[in-house]
Design goal:
Length: about 150
């Protein structure tokens, strides 16, 4: 005889600090055995909340900083740095102004030009709508022309 049994658990996540250690350990196993697809936001959040409760409980009475560094913070820092670079270029280059890659790198604080710094600067210029071109007068150097002005 083939029989299928479905068991459902309802857990008040706000009550995690009040559950016994044994029950919390069982919740950890339930969270990991959850049949939800990999990356399901509700399943991931529940497992994280249970895990944080377990860690904070067993670390003892001194509340250390548990979550100062997390993977998602790197993405936020990268986004913030990108916004800062964009703002620096937008605020220091007039519409239609010609600027070389080296000059743009200096404005972003890159005193030495490596491949990463050049790529980062080039990405910012493109994101802001600068177009590659030649200096309209004088030496006709290759560089970038800021959006919003005559080339």
């Amino acid at each position: 005889m083939n029989a299928t049994t479905t068991i459902t658990f309802k857990v008040d996540e706000g009550n995690l600090p009040n559950y016994t250690d044994e029950y919390l350990a069982a919740l950890w196993h339930i969270a990991q055995a959850n049949p939800a697809p990999f990356g399901d936001s509700a399943a991931c959040a529940f497992a994280e909340h249970v895990g944080r409760e377990i860690i904070s409980r067993w670390l003892g009475s001194v509340p250390p900083e548990l979550w100062l560094h997390q993977g998602r913070h790197a993405a936020k820092a990268s986004d913030a740095a990108r916004t800062l670079r964009d703002d620096l270029l937008r605020d220091t280059v007039a519409p239609g102004q010609f600027i070389t890659l080296a000059e743009a790198m200096l404005r972003l604080g890159f005193e030495e030009g490596g491949a990463v710094q050049e790529s980062t600067t080039r990405d910012a210029l493109i994101r802001l709508g600068f177009t590659a071109g030649r200096e309209p007068h004088g030496l006709r150097r290759r560089g970038w022309i800021a959006p919003g002005g005559a080339a």
